[in-house]
Write a structure and sequence with these properties.
It is a single chain. This protein is α/β, with parallel strands linked by helices. It has a single domain, classed as Alpha/Beta hydrolase fold, catalytic domain (Rossmann fold). It has 12 helices and 8 strands. It has an 8-stranded mixed β-sheet, sandwiched between helices. It is globular, with a radius of gyration of 18 Å.
Length: 270
């Protein structure tokens, strides 16, 4: 475990170095970006990260600001703040090989936003149950966060959750409640800068988008693919939003194949 200063913030970072290497070229690096509220880097630690490291990929995981073990400032939760954090983190860690971004839910929005901001810096993006930050996304986030903040303030909620799900799950939900009630997240995220279709279309790195067939996000697959010439969309049967957990093996297969297909072959001395 390491705490790294990135963008003036203490960010919790975990790394899993590649366990095997091929040739003399530096291995690719994958940055795993988790989702909002009840998620953290732990989700990846027990799903995709060990497999990617075993496959010869350097793995970087970090907790978003305000979540997990990272610092929780009272303000500064627009998407642009998260993009600045990721940019500063990459500058500090300075990975040598090609960098691939994998984002789950809100983490995918961050990954795509980084690719939109830094064309040519990212070898590929993989988005799990995620979408770009558009006007429609902003309106949906406003509704979801306001509704979540109201529900997490309900009297007796946590006692019910302990009885139904146990203390471990309830601890994560309490942390989400603190994020919503003690920071400006609810108003900051919907106020983020958004991308129009031209900005989405300008992202030129390969993009893999995975959706659960029972999720409302699956409906955007055709739209997304129509805008991006180097995009592949996959709709996973019998899954809702938590594809990462519900179909971990398939998700790992698809993303690992995507990373391998879009990691440039480098010769010694090049």
């Amino acid at each position: 475990m390491a705490m790294i200063d990135a963008n003036g913030l203490a960010v919790h970072v975990e790394r899993m170095p590649a366990r095997t290497t091929t040739g003399t070229a530096p291995p690719p690096t994958v940055v795993l970006i988790h989702g909002m509220l009840i998620d953290s880097l732990i989700s990846y630690y027990f799903t995709l990260a060990p497999r990617f490291a075993a496959a010869g990929i350097d793995v970087i995981m970090y907790d978003l600001r305000g979540q997990g073990l990272s610092e929780r400032p009272s303000a500064g939760y627009r998407l642009e703040d998260h993009l600045d954090d990721l940019e500063a983190l990459l500058d500090r860690l300075d990975p040598v090989g090609p960098v691939h971004l994998v984002g789950n839910s809100y983490g995918g929005t961050i990954a795509f936003g980084h690719a939109a901001r830094h064309r040519g810096r990212v070898a590929s993006v993989s988005m799990i149950e995620s979408e770009p930050a558009t006007g429609a996304w902003s309106r949906k986030m406003a509704d979801n966060l306001a509704r979540g903040a109201e529900e997490l303030a309900r009297d007796g909620l946590f006692e019910e959750l302990v009885e139904k799900h146990g203390k471990h799950v309830t601890k994560r939900i309490r942390s989400a409640a603190r994020l919503l009630h003690s920071t400006t997240t609810v108003r900051d995220v919907p106020a983020s800068q958004v991308l129009d279709e031209d900005a989405v279309r300008a992202v030129d790195c390969p993009v893999l988008a995975l959706y659960g067939a029972e999720s409302e996000l699956a409906a955007q697959a055709d739209w997304f693919r129509s805008l991006l010439p180097r995009c592949r969309t996959v709709v996973v049967p019998d899954q809702e939003h938590w594809v990462l957990v519900g179909a971990t093996e398939l998700t790992g297969d698809l993303i690992l194949g995507w990373i391998r297909a879009h990691t440039p072959c480098r010769q010694p001395g090049t």
